[in-house]
Design goal:
five-stranded antiparallel beta sheet; single chain; about 15% helix
């Protein structure tokens, strides 16, 4: 975890793509949520925007960066925000920020994680296929 202060809210250019509440079964032996569980949720959240573009199969090909800023607790409401960073020939790179809200403590949002992931579009045979950049085409 880093010493970087948490932000109070996501930037306006990010889109809310997922909300989840971690449960006791997602905890490690110390009562914090497993980092791997958070990583799996980030992978799901990161998939949403590329899926809207590709409208077909995608595979995660890289976790370019993953930073845990604060621990996540049971019962926190986690909000996942994403934006497309880059659209390549067959791949899409996505930036994801995760914010936590502990409703029982009446806290404001805290940024707990940020990550950059790359997904590749796949054809019916599981091979990379070109991404049609519908965002740039105005579709």
């Amino acid at each position: 975890m880093t010493d970087t202060p948490a932000l109070s809210r996501p930037a306006e250019d990010l889109t809310l793509v997922l909300k989840v509440i971690p449960m006791p079964s997602d905890c490690n032996a110390y009562g914090d949520i497993f980092g791997g569980w958070v990583m799996a949720q980030v992978d799901l959240a990161g998939w949403v925007l590329p899926a809207q573009i590709v409208q077909g199969r995608l595979a995660t090909v890289a976790v370019n960066e993953f930073v845990f800023k604060e621990a996540v607790r049971v019962g926190d409401i986690l909000s996942f925000y994403a934006k497309i960073k880059r659209i390549g020939n067959t791949s899409i790179t996505v930036y994801v920020e995760v914010y936590s809200e502990h409703i029982h403590a009446n806290e404001s949002l805290r940024k707990v994680t940020e990550a950059t992931l790359t997904y590749v579009a796949l054809d019916a045979n599981g091979r990379p296929k070109p991404v049609e950049d519908k965002l740039k085409e105005g579709a």
